[in-house]
Amino acid sequence: MTRNRSRGDDAQEPAPAATPAVDTRLLVREEGLRGYLREFWRKLRSGELGSLPVVLAVIIIWTVFGSLNSTFLSAQNLSDLSQQIVGTGMIAVGIVFVLLLGEIDLSVGSVSGLCAAIFAVLNVLNGMNQWLALLIAILGGAAVGLIHGFFFAKVGVPAFVVTLAGNLAWNGLMLQVLGSSGTVNIPSDSIVAELYSTIYASPAAAYAAAAVGVGLFLAASLLDAGRRRAAKVPSRPVTEIVLRAAVLAAIAFATAYILNRYEGLPLALLIFLILLVVLDFVLRRTTYGRKIFAVGGNVEGARRAGIGVASIRMSVFSIAGTMAGVGGIFLAGQIQSASQTSGGGNLLMNVIAAAVIGGTSLFGGRGSVWSALLGALVIGSIQSGMNIMGVSNAVQFMITGAVLLAAVVVDSLSRRSQKAAGRA
After folding, report:
1. What is the per-residue pLDDT across 223-261, written as a single tens digit (0 to 9) for each?
2. Can you give the pTM of this predicted structure?
3. Which of the two residues, 362 and 133, has the higher pLDDT score?
4. Strand, coil or helix: 183
5. How far apart, in Å, are the Cα atoms of 109 and each of 51, 170, 292?
6. Are 362 and 356 in contact (CB under 8 A)?
7. Which of 32, 285, 327, 339 could form a disulfide with 183 if both were Cys (CB 3.0 to 4.6 A apart)?
8. Cα dist. 86→80, 149, 168, 216, 324 in Å?
């Protein structure tokens, strides 16, 4: 006869041993090249495309225009392109921050024009010290962004409406600041003009900048891996870090070589790259940056985790206004004037397109400040190539719009694939 066991007997049975968790990254690295290829294919299938689409887009665009006209790939055109994308790229960085929240800012074009007008009027017409005028102009952009953030985060007005109203209001204020003349010319020896036009002709400058950038990347990667090993969490092996540094070195020194074949290293490009490095550190390595991703990924979850959602939103819109001001200053330095058309035209479309095309998601929670550089490079390359080919502005607008739509489609499909794979 089978004896029924008592509850006490059940309680005395040993629980099955827990299966230790295994980090998939360790398995990938143990398998070597095969593991990395398998992981790469898994990411593609699950929609984790990263910067791959925009890198492929740059290669295709450069190949097409280079084959149609050899002038496109000349050192002079590529050097000019590296300067021309700075103003748009600076403003697009601010858009990246806003998109990480899953929001949009439609005022950055008019804010950039307003900041350029503030500098020109204070410095050129009123004789204020140019550094002080520059600081006031950029702080003006930060204040405007903070106003947008307040109405969005505290009052509850949708960001789309707030910034659309701001686009009209700040454009009107810019016209008021410029006065009846409508245009203020900026002297070529002004700090704003020199920030854009200065080029370090010595070949050592470009190569030194490339070496410093690669060295900082290698040192930071090794230190991070060391800290992770000390904490007994998965880290990249030294061989992988060295390989990544070698790829970066190839790109950096090739860029330096091309720049040196023309005039040298543009100061505007150098400032842009330094700013990207700093803001990338803020987003990926600081608590504040992690809070931005948390709010963009899940607002309610971030609120329950104790994150001050309203303060994060206000600060992000202030950053967008600041970067719009910085970008507006560089655009004013490019044409050496501030006028009624500053911040107008297709600037707003280009900066939003640059952020999205570069890989920042419209749905929030995913992106990088480097998206601004890559996206601005795509937009700038298309415009430069079509200008060389003599294509009309109407066709340029249509092509740029098509590229933007394609980027949004890729983003939407990528998000759908990640949801299907349980990774979104």
Report:
1. 988 888 888 877 778 888 899 899 999 999 999 999 999
2. 0.86
3. 133
4. strand
5. 26, 9, 23
6. yes
7. 339
8. 10, 25, 25, 22, 12
